[in-house]
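Design a sequence for this backbone.
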């Protein structure tokens, strides 16, 4: 496998010689042990990080990915296949003879994860102003760098009060609005008294440094989101989500991290600088300040930002634009800038002092301030954007490499949190199921009930048609002398037959009727105001709740013809007086007289 990877990168390996494994991995991975029985048991390296002399970042990433993928593959096969032991039966195959293409390392070059740093106090004993330089510097060079730092100490800021901000003519952050977006005022949030006290202290500090100012007549209002930092102090963040949604995208191109990492390698000396609260050095456009208004709890009122706060959309693009304007002729020569991270690299150590002076002169001209506590001057090895950079090349940052190795060694895989939650629920249902045996349900066709009522001078009649699940129809024609209204009659018709269906064991029913009022009142689409109808409706709903499934449908009078004719026959609307004597005379209320349910029925 190693031979195949080396050939892919353009190296010839002799057929009669055992190929060396050239490690592009950090030192802690080069001694990682693979599972026993693999084609090779140990990774070894001839000289620390010598591979960086011929690998750029893309080759480095490709080579690393192939090695780790091979390790994962062999680990997965470890339990399924048997491997023959190596003939020497050694724990490792090691040969420290040079390959012939390495660059000779200087004696004073000491490869460490990062250079050790020492403090430099640019203030007094009582008021210390600390920054850091490399401990590995020679005395003369160390003194020259310290002299430059003292000369340009006005380019650093140890507190907000020392920040002047960048000139508005150079850059300012604007907040144009998308056409049609309306201002949003967020609802007030509540905070505990302890948090309110800390918010008040931070607001007073921001007012003192003139980063914010009081405001009135706000159209946009955002809320405070307090964040407690590790040191116990509070950072005031603002919920700008509504404002960001109304802001168009800034298409300013951002630098490519991979290109920058390759550009800063190969330097004999580096200095890394970090902007002091970088966003706070850029002003908000005067006309757009009112859009950044935020509400404070208690009696603190509302305030608006004068400088560019964290949380605004594309604030990073505005800061990158400012850095490119300030260092436009230095970027690419000996400087690389990624938002507020600055790297000054010199191919020769003697040129580094001049490069520092040119950089500080530009910062002083525009009032740009650096954070001295995050700066490191005159280093050889340092971390930048997740990689360790030095003269010989790059390395993966140690924590990232350890995590990659852990994933391959233990066959770890990433599982989304949603999948984990779903699996927990499934396991719970499997192991804590209450059903002892499976229950089978038989699905049957629903009973159908057609109803209608008819009121006439001769009497009041009810017509009903019931169709069983087997399709057998049964007709009911009932008459009563009670003084029901037309709608009451239809309610009583339904109540009477529902009692019968309940006794027959019906579970699913479909009710058809041409009375839109009754159907809509039961389904709560119409409001019922009549007291007598309210009583009928309550009894009706109580009966419907005893069934598993109930469906009420309104149909036309023609479709409900059979139930309509039965009701009219019972009321005497269509037949002679003699024929009425053969009908049932219902003396009591239909819903409570169960004896009449078996009288005068005909089955077709």
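Sequence:
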């Amino acid at each position: 496998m190693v031979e195949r990877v080396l050939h892919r990168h353009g190296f010839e390996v002799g057929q009669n010689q055992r190929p060396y494994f050239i490690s592009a991995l950090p030192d802690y991975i080069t001694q990682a042990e693979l599972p026993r029985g693999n084609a090779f048991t140990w990774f070894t390296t001839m000289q620390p990080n010598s591979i960086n002399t011929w690998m750029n970042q893309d080759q480095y990433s490709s080579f690393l990915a192939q090695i780790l993928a091979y390790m994962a593959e062999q680990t997965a096969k470890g339990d399924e296949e048997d491997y023959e032991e190596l003939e020497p039966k050694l724990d490792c195959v090691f040969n420290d003879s040079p390959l012939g293409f390495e660059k000779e390392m200087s004696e004073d070059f000491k490869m460490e994860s990062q250079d050790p740093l020492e403090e430099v106090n640019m203030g007094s004993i009582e008021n210390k102003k600390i920054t850091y330089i490399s401990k590995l510097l020679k005395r003369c060079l160390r003194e020259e760098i310290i002299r430059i730092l003292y000369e340009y100490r006005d380019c650093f800021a140890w507190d907000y009060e020392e920040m002047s901000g960048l000139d508005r003519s150079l850059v300012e952050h604007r907040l144009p609005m998308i056409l049609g977006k309306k201002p949003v005022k967020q609802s007030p949030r509540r905070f505990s008294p302890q948090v309110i006290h800390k918010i008040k202290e931070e607001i007073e500090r921001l007012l003192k440094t003139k980063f914010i100012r009081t405001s009135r007549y706000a159209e946009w209002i955002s809320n405070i989101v307090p964040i407690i930092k590790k040191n116990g102090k509070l950072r005031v963040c603002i919920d700008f989500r509504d404002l960001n949604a109304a802001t168009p995208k800034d298409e300013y191109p951002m630098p490519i991290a991979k290109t920058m990492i390759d550009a800063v390698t190969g330097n004999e000396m580096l200095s890394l600088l970090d902007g002091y609260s970088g966003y706070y050095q850029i002003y908000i456009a005067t006309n757009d300040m009112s859009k950044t208004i935020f509400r404070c709890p208690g009696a603190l009122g509302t305030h608006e930002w004068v400088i560019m706060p964290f949380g605004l959309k594309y604030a990073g693009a505005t800061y990158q634009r400012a850095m490119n304007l300030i260092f436009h002729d230095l970027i690419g020569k000996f400087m690389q800038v990624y938002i507020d991270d600055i790297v000054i690299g010199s191919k020769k150590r003697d040129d580094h002092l001049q490069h520092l002076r040119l950089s500080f002169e530009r910062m002083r001209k525009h009032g740009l301030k650096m954070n001295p506590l995050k700066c490191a001057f005159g280093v050889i090895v340092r971390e930048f954007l997740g990689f360790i950079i030095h003269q010989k090349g790059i390395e993966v940052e140690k924590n990232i490499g350890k995590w990659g190795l852990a994933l391959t060694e233990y066959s770890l895989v990433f599982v989304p949190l949603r999948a984990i939650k779903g699996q927990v629920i499934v396991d719970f249902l499997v192991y804590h199921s209450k059903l002892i045996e499976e229950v089978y349900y038989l699905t049957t066709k629903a009973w159908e009930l057609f109803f209608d009522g008819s009121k006439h001078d001769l009497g009041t009649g009810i017509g009903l048609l019931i169709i069983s699940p087997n399709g057998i129809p049964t007709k009911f024609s009932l008459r009563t002398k009670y003084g029901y209204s037309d709608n009451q009659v239809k309610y009583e018709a339904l109540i009477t037959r529902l009692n019968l269906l309940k006794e027959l064991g019906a579970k699913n029913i479909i009710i058809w009727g041409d009375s839109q009022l009754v159907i809509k009142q039961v389904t709560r689409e119409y409001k019922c105001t009549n007291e007598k109808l309210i009583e009928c409706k309550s009894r009706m709903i109580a009966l419907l709740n005893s069934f598993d499934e109930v469906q009420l449908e309104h149909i036309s009078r023609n479709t409900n013809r059979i139930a309509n004719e039965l009701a009219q026959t019972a009321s005497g609307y269509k037949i002679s007086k003699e024929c009425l004597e053969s009908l049932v005379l219902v003396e009591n209320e239909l819903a409570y007289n169960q004896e009449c349910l078996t009288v005068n029925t005909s089955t077709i």
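The two ends are 87 Å apart (CA to CA).
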